[in-house]
Model the fold of this input.
Amino acid sequence: MARKTFRKVITSPEKIEKIEDSNKKLVQRFLRYMSQTKSEGTITVYKSNFDIFFCWNLEYNDNKPFETIKKIEMQDFFIFCSEELQYSPNRFAQMHSSLSSLSTYIENQLDEIERYENFRNIVQKIEKPVKEPVREKTIISPEQIDKLTKQLKELSKDDPYRFQEALYIVLSVSTGTRLNETLRITIDLIDEKETAFDDLFLVTKKQIKTKGRGRTGKMLYKYIIKDLFLPWYKEWLPIREKIMKENNVKEHNAIFIKRDGNPITTSVVSGWTQKWTEMSGIDIYSHSFRHYFVTYLSRIGLEAELIQSIVGWTSSEMVAIYNDLRVDEREWKGLGKLAEALRETAPKNRSKGKKKK
Done:
């Protein structure tokens, strides 16, 4: 079954146009200020959250200027988020963070403006629910990955374009990259001679942008399990070249392409994952491949510190979050000590059974 998310839309261009003027100007000023240090993706999230809040304020709170909104009214909004919009704890926290950031900006940057001189951040007074999983996590096995990629390769005999779907899966489970990061790994960044970790991994020739603070995110080299990736990659390149020539598309560096030969977008990958879910009966989404990568490396015994370095995390705690092995599936050195102690203390005839009289 595909992953389903409840969605109730309370915004519209008509409603956004009716938002109180001072609130519009406040948001515009805040977004310009934050765009100096935040990525485009973060600014988009801010804008979306403010559209929701101020459309609620328009419909249910008399379109009040932001600085006049009371704590009880702000609480009403977050109750609306929980009950009407059915926000998960994580989504609730995201909205809470956006409105709190806007409020902190007013306190720190606009306090000399008369209308804001007595403003205080009331969002901080609103309690956030404890974060907890709201969806069952998909744990994909190596056998399931192998079966799905072989199915896609078989389908590509009639439709060569679909071969790259298998390659996308292989690249994702060989790197642990997020969707956007996977698409940033381009042909010009891959060289068979550029390897790392005892020649087991390819390493991108340059760093790519990954999720992180600031406009540019975090720049990291990406490591690809060589023997998993290269055979699929080499088989795809001639197919890719043929599709591009048939569509008279000039050469570009994107590995993955649309049917017209141009680079794909994230929406294309989203369409792929829906097809893969239907084909496999497994709830597949891009982030599940990141879990697979960490779990795979953990299962074969790579140290958490090494996995952390390969992915580019600053904390080894992230390895534990993405490692989906059950506690009894992991290797524990201490178990050898228990076995040794049991051998020393258990009766010698313990495994021989009772003798018949």
Confidence is low (pLDDT under 50) at residues 349-357.
